[in-house]
Amino acid sequence: MSNGVLCFAHNNGKVDYLRQAEILAERVKKHLDLPTTLVTSTASELQNVGLFDKVIEIKNKKSNYISLY
Questions:
Q1: Shortest CA distance to 7 belongs to which of 59, 51, 67, 47?
Q2: CA quadruple 43, 2, 33, 27: dihedral positive or negative?
Q3: What does the pLDDT read at residue 43?
């Protein structure tokens, strides 16, 4: 197993969680130098995809569960 950061972000009508995830990724890169993966159902709304080493898009907007197997 390797080290890294896994972030879940799903926008809603009130909070821009994707923007918060982008800010997190900037700080992780600057201070920890670890790879960052984003799990989201709203990947099309990302403004800076290059901040993340990997973006996993899930289909169900109401679920945070992803199968790794």
A1: 51
A2: positive
A3: 86
Under 8 Å CB-to-CB from 36, ≥6 apart: which residues? 4, 5, 7, 24, 25, 28, 29, 51, 52, 53
Q: Where are the beta strands (DSSP E) in 1-69?
A: 5-8, 36-40, 54-57
Asked if residue 13 has pLDDT above 90, the reply is no
Burial class (CB in 10 A: 0-12, 13-18, 19+), 22: buried
Average pLDDT over residues 58-66: 62
For residue 54, the SS3 value is strand
User: For 15-61, what is each residue's pLDDT tens digit?
Assistant: 899 999 999 999 999 999 999 999 998 888 888 889 999 999 988 65
